[in-house]
Structure formats: C-alpha cells, structure tokens
Model the fold of this input.
Amino acid sequence: MSVKKPVVVVTRKLPDAVETRMCELFNAKLNLDDHPMSQAELIEAVKNADVLVPTVTDKIDAALISQAGEKLKLIANFGNGVDNIDVSAAARKGVTVTNTPNVLTEDTADMTVGLMIAVSRRILEGAKTLEKGNWNGWSPTWMLGQRIWGKRLGIIGMGRIGSAVARRAKAFGLAIHYHNRNRVAQQIEDELEATYWDSLDQMLARMDIISINCPYTPATFHLLSTRRLALMQPEATIINTARGEIIDEIAMVKALNDGKLAGAGLDVFEHEPAVSSEMMKLVDEGKAVILPHMGSATIEGRLEMGDRVIINIRTLYDGHRPPDRVLPIDS
Ligand code: 8YV
Done:
C-alpha cells in the first residue's frame, strides 16, 4: 500500500544531496533557481503545503501564517535562528516550528574568532595593500594591530555558540567574561575560567572585545543601544555573528566614526542584505571588517542542516514530537 507523502515546499535551493533525499522521502517542491520567494509565492506555499522549509531570507509572520491552509502542520526552518518566524502565531494555528541547532555551532564560532583576529590584526587591510600593489616593503611601525593574547573577551549570550567561541578564545589567550540570562553551570565556568556578569553595562565597560552570540528576540532588539555603546572603551572592538538587529547599527557607525570604538567585525547587518554607504566607508578606513552572513556557510554544515530538517519532518510524520521543536518565548 502506498503512503501519501507530505507536500514539502522548500523556499530556497539546498545542496543537491539534501534535495535528492527530500525527493525520495517527500513530495518535495524545490526552488531550483534559488530566487528569494515573493510574498505571493509564500502565500501559495502555506496554503498548499503540509510542511514549509523556509530560511532566514523568508519572513514568516503572523499575516502569512493566518493564510495557511488546514494541511500545514510544520514549519521546519533551515537555520538555527527563528527570528524570521512568528513562532507564537504558528503555535496558535497548531503549526509546529523546528530549527537546526548544534550543526552550525562550530562553524559560526570559527567565523567569530576569524573576525576577531581579522579586526585586531588588520588582516584585510594588509591583504588589500598587496592587492592594490601599494606595498613598499617591511617597516617596523607600519600596519600595527592590537594583540589579542591576554585581552578580555565579553561574550553576550553563553549558549551553544557562545560557549564554542569561549573555548576557542581561551586557547588564543583571551580571558573569558560573559553575560547571559542565566549563569552557566559551575563546571563550565571552571573549564573556561569564565567570569559571569549579571550586569551587561558593567561588563561592556571593562572588555577589550565584545562578541554577540545571543538570539535576536524582542528583548535583544538594539541591546547594544547608543547608551550601551557609549559605555565601551575607545580601544574596544565588537564582533557580531548573531543578528544585525541586536546592535543599533547607526549608533555603532557613529561610535566608530567618532573614535569611541576601535573596530567592528560583522557577519550580519540590521537591514540585510543592505549595507549602508557609511558602513562601507568604515571598511575603506580599516575600522570594520564585514562579511555577507556566511558564519555557517560550510558544505558540511549545510548538509547537516538538511539532515536536521529531514529528521524533524520524518519524526512528525512518524507520529512523534520532532527533536528540534521551538516553543514560543511566552510559553
Ligand atoms: C543560516 C543563521 O545560514 O542559522 C542561522 O541562524 O544565521 C545562518 O547562519 C541561515 O539562518 C539559514 O537560514
């Protein structure tokens, strides 16, 4: 007896291996040319699909979810952060939401440390000098950066990615400090020799490098506000591989321009994919190193993200609770 396969609408092009497996298991509707779906296409998708597989580039808000058909049972996000999805609206409609945790932790932590070193040691500025044919030879006082060994790193958000950043940073000789909603287990603090700050303001004022590794939620919107940015030391740098919205980007650009902050390493932006001309100017001046949201962009990571999505769909259709269920914040 043939079992009816769920209709699974995938909003973006995924690695071939993931798509092939999805086609074997589900009635998968793929987006082969990888165009970001229009609002009309998303509406069509939620009306007809059993499962929607969106990514960070799709806004799955309450208005869209209200258009969902009776069939829609699952929104299986291809990504860790679910700030693109109104999880509460989905729950009210009886739609389960899942994400892909763990599998992008190490890659994102690598990119965070990469940005830290790139900013402090002026890696891009140096490379650009060579590229432009402007190198006149070694000089003892030229292209001097800041040493990171022995400095203090303040991590905002000590979850999976924050802890992975801390482990790496410790090996690079940084002293680990953190601010988190909850203090982590004593054993983890001991292992990382980490100092917990209940007060984010107090921590910001004392760190050489700040790394943002918390999720973007209504509570973390502009967490680094004009006021908080002003607390930081003028020699300090900020690294953000989480979400652009967590920093007031205009205020950060101003602080960098005014010499109130020394540098920024950013993989994410407040109005992605738009990057302001003021930000580009900071890049030219060597005050910012910016990347196009590629923290988790490894072949292995994307395949494992696909595996998680498939496991979540399969588990639900086997009559069980998917392992990576995301609950509304207010639940
Ligand atoms: C993903 C990310 O690539 O998973 C996340 O939260 O920020 C990214 O690294 C993206 O979200 C894919 O949807």
Observations:
- The chain has a mean pLDDT of 97.
- The chain has 13 helices and twelve strands.
